[in-house]
Amino acid sequence: MRVLLSIKPQYANKIFEGSKRFEFRKAIHKNPNVKVVVVYATKPVGKVIGEFTVSDVHSDSPRRLWRKTKSAAGITERFFTEYFAGREIGFAIEVAQARLYDEPLELTDFVASGFAPQSFVYLAAT
Questions:
Q1: How many helices (H) and strands (E) does the chain have?
Q2: Cα separation of 91 and 80, whole Å?
Q3: Which of 63, 76, 85, 98 is deepest in the core (most CB within 10 A)?
Q4: Closest CA to 39 of 72, 4, 74
Q5: What is the DSSP annotation of 55-114?
Q6: Among candidate residues 53, 14, 38, 54, the one with its CA nearest the CA of residue 104
Q7: Where are the domains of the chain?
Q8: Which residues on adjacent β-strands are paired with residue 7?
Q9: What span, in angstroms and rounded, lies between the C-alpha atoms of 87 and 105?
């Protein structure tokens, strides 16, 4: 099963460069069968640029989550702390293998409405 995530271009690029091995989320998909994340790089890119396989999904207090992920977080501790401010639980999707598409694809190839999800959207099997 696959989900599409909207990710800011600077963080999406770090995932495909290999310097960001965790994608952090305040809320996450509930289906444990999700094995692939399709990446929509938000504006100004506005394209689906690649995908990655999910190694694991970690959930913990932000403090413990940072300790587990900081070496490959791809973001600063300050940004992480501000992002999870007021949250008791945070999520980190661990990237196993990232594959950048040869050519970016249109969002409408994946989501009929053409609207990027706020958090995520499940995708039909291919």
A1: 3, 6
A2: 11
A3: 98
A4: 4
A5: EEEEEE-HHHHHHHHGGG--S-HHHHHHHTTT-S-EEEEEEEEEEEEEEEE-GGGT-TT-
A6: 38
A7: 2-123
A8: 41
A9: 34
Give the tens place of pLDDT for each residue, 62-93.
999 999 999 999 999 999 999 999 999 999 99
- The helix/strand/coil state of 28 is coil
Q: What is the pLDDT of residue 66?
A: 98
User: For the whole model, what pTM was predicted?
Assistant: 0.94
CATH topology of domain 2-123: 2.30.130
* pLDDT < 70 positions in the chain: 126
11 burial via Cβ count (<10 Å: 0-12, 13-18, 19+): middle
Specify the 3-state DSSP secondary structure of 54: strand
